[in-house]
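Risk register update: the risk of archive-format incompatibility is retired. Evidence:
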Amino acid sequence: MGRPRGSKNKPKEIIEVEPTKKRGRPVGSKTVHQTDIPKVEYTLEPIRNFMEIMKTFGDKGYMIYQVSATSMELKAEDMPKAVQKYVELYGVLPTRVILHERNEKLLPYLNAEVPNIEAGLVIGGTALWELQFQAPTSR
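Archived output:
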């Protein structure tokens, strides 16, 4: 097999291909600036471990603020919304909150909304997309 007899070598066309990006930002993504979300530098040391939290906070009811199931995590912009929802329901600022341990980064944003709020961080008992405020003892 091979080339037929008498066929000439034909010059090959060289096609230049631009290298495609394998990594990077998706097309159309935007940078979200969090400059308008208040944040404080110092927060109270959170209590860790569910049993330690229950000893300190007591076994009282908790209001759960959940974000949409699509994002499946709390974000800094959810903190003012959660506090506002709590104040509308109870008429006072929350005093205690329970968060998932991986949401510790959100405490400065929450503390900007509610100064000196006591926070408890647990692995189980609350999900990444939940913010649990302790309900006030009397309405």
